[in-house]
């Protein structure tokens, strides 16, 4: 009896695992399949480096270079803003606080991570975009800059938690020695903790980049969604927002529809390349 | 001298960055809650959206219920699969290669942007399998999205169970099945529930996957899993995106944030209780 129970359980667990792994691999294959149809008709280099996105035009009018640039641009702006703030906060969390204060700041960061992106987009649209329009007299507040600022807020929790973890370890390892030598805390952090955390800082950048590039709602609500070459203070379009806005309208099986899949595919490839670069950097730094 | 200046700059940097983070969170929560409370009353919470265009007046009750249903369904769907996968990889999988492959696939999935998942769900479930845009399709898509999240956490929890307990159980001749069901799962129960709750909050706040797969501008409270559904984040997006009603948008945002905060706090309490034992 026990044996039967045992093997039934094992069977169920095995089946469900197989099922989930199959679903997941199926998704990847499925996206590939839907995009390959497109790449048969449109040359991939042309798709990536062409400048016009006109879904109703002919095949050579479908290209996403400005959109790819927009995706990267917004995320990079986000990182540039978020990184110094995030690292600074991680230093405070790992080295200057303990006990209650640490718990409070940590849970604040957790709350930041738990707020859904649509809320950030909402606030970005109502506060940030308006602010840019009124204070700096931009013709339109919906811009790469606005997207970058909103994204930077969303990236903060990732950067903070990734950096803090390793900084805490480094700090614990060396604080005894440096105290014994009478070295000041800030000197020790600058000369030992920060250089030793290089790898986790890099890792956090990649993690945040991945998050930022895949982010749909918050970015979509504040960048204006115009498929033109991105300028810091002008409108732009990102791949996720392109998909979200146009997928519902695209006729099934049309070039437009497959083009959207192809841009999703390109997005995943960009993320993959970033991750591979990270992997190589990690290896080299050891 | 140089050292002194560097020290000052360094301290200024870290203090100001902490202040910025705290200010941001206080501002975001404060802004939404302060503006939102003005819009929230009983009618808003328990009423249907009314007016032309829809949503100008009235409440968001179907959206609240819809969001909760989406969260519950997607959690059930994802956690059954995720917990099984975690149990398999931790206790049953005897080949390292297989385990590595499973991990690789899960990692790949965790990196797929949510909108791409939404696009997948839309094409497969709605276009190919011809299921209506419904609670079911949205919940499946959300479930796929939170699957890696739950799996990674549950696997970590299972790995952290003291191995001497497991080995003693085996040594007493207790079968693997009984060890897992009677010993390991009860130990991890609180942590696993806490992880699932967090994932549920994540699913509830996600908009991108459900834009294409299920959320609609107006639907009554769903009667079955095949009826279309309203969701709070999507409702918020429509209210602001189409400029329908700012007042109600604030209210919706506040309700969404309050529900999510409650879920997060609940998850924290459940996870914390175990630590004290």
UniProtKB/TrEMBL annotation, chain A:
Subcellular location: Cell membrane
Pfam families xrefs: BPD_transp_1
GO cellular component terms attached to this protein's record: plasma membrane
Sequence ranges assigned to domain ABC transmembrane type-1 in this UniProt record: 68-278
Keywords, in A-Z order: Cell membrane, Membrane, Phosphate transport, Transmembrane, Transmembrane helix, Transport
Gene name of the encoded protein: pstC
Record-annotated membrane-spanning stretches: 12-32, 63-87, 108-132, 144-163, 200-223, 259-281
InterPro entries from the UniProt entry: MetI-like, MetI-like_sf, Phosphate_PstC, Phosphate_Transport_Permease
GO molecular function list: phosphate transmembrane transporter activity
Topology within the bilayer: Multi-pass membrane protein
GO BP annotations, alphabetical order: phosphate ion transport
Entry function: Part of the binding-protein-dependent transport system for phosphate; probably responsible for the translocation of the substrate across the membrane.
Keyword Transport: yes
SUPFAM superfamilies: MetI-like (SSF161098)
Annotated family: Belongs to the binding-protein-dependent transport system permease family. CysTW subfamily.
Domain of life: Bacteria
Protein name: Phosphate transport system permease protein
Automatic annotation (TrEMBL), chain B:
Principal subcellular localization: membrane
Compartment(s) of residence: Cell membrane; Membrane
Bilayer topology term: Multi-pass membrane protein
GO cellular component: plasma membrane
Record's keyword terms, sorted: Membrane, Transmembrane, Transmembrane helix, Transport
Residue ranges of domain ABC transmembrane type-1 in the record: 64-267
Gene Ontology biological process terms in this record: transmembrane transport
One Pfam family named in its UniProt record: BPD_transp_1
Source superkingdom: Bacteria
Keyword Transport: yes
Residue stretches spanning the membrane: 12-33, 59-92, 104-129, 135-152, 192-221, 249-271
Family the UniProt entry places it in: Belongs to the binding-protein-dependent transport system permease family.
Name the UniProt record assigns to this protein: ABC transporter permease subunit
Origin species: Tissierella pigra
